[in-house]
Write a structure and sequence with these properties.
Blueprint lengths: L1 H14 L2 E6 L3 E6 L11 E6 L4 E2 L5 H12 L4 E9 L6 E12 L6 E10 L1 H26 L5 E6 L2 E7 L1 H7 L3 H4 L14 H16 L2
Antiparallel strand pairs: 1-2, 1-7, 2-3, 4-5, 5-6, 6-7, 8-9
Length: about 210
């Protein structure tokens, strides 16, 4: 049993950033780093409703509802994400929170919650940045699709610049379906005998552009 207790302490230190305790009145009374758990040091907080540290975040509302429902029913909850104001530091961020109810051994009365918290602020910020970038890309594609101008995207390949996207404007100009345009050289619409100088000039500019990146 002692071996498992020691292992449990190590796992807590590896898998959480904070340990917390909430009393039966819903007040946060302890918020400490798990590295001091072996010293049994109490890092107390001025009693304050623990819900006051949690910020509303519309994208995480399901987690918030599930967590508060578990607390109402005095049941355990695991890995609930929540926007928050970090206790004591007053820094805004996000946590992944787990907690278990505590019952008095003598009276079996509910006496609060013990829990762990993992700081996921960096993950949430990176995820939302990617979501914004993805939204911007989708919006840009919608604009290109709706444009009457012939627009394409291309990437360098062994045979030159290969078309990877063609909008409706280019489909109409070429008279070819989009799937026939994909994989074509960007110069496929040009008359090789008439536009040879223009083609060479464009190739030279593309090559210089690639070398400067």
């Amino acid at each position: 049993m002692e071996k498992w207790q020691n292992a449990g302490i190590e796992l807590l230190q590896m898998c959480s950033d904070w340990l917390w305790t909430v009393n039966r009145e819903g007040q946060l009374i302890e918020w400490r780093n798990p590295s001091v758990i072996e010293k049994n040091e109490m890092d107390s907080c001025p009693p304050q409703q623990w819900s006051s540290f949690l910020r509303d975040d519309a994208t995480l509302r399901d987690d918030r509802v599930a967590m508060f429902k578990a607390v109402r029913d005095t049941k355990p909850f695991r890995f609930m994400r929540s926007a928050c104001v970090m206790p004591k530091s007053n820094v805004r961020g996000w946590l992944r929170i787990s907690g278990i109810p505590n019952f008095d051994k003598a009276t079996h009365q509910f006496s609060g919650y013990y829990g762990v918290a993992l700081n996921i602020t960096g993950q949430m910020m990176a995820s939302r940045k990617l979501e914004r970038m993805d939204m911007q890309t989708r919006n840009m594609m919608l604009v290109m699709d709706a444009s009457p101008l012939a627009i394409f995207l291309a990437k360098p390949s062994a045979s030159g610049w290969t078309i990877t996207y063609a909008n409706a404007g280019l489909v109409e100009l070429s008279g070819l379906p989009a799937e026939k345009i994909m994989g074509q050289s960007v110069f496929f619409l040009m008359d090789q005998s008439v536009d040879i100088i223009l083609i060479e000039m464009l190739k030279e500019r593309m090559q210089k552009r690639m070398q400067t990146k």
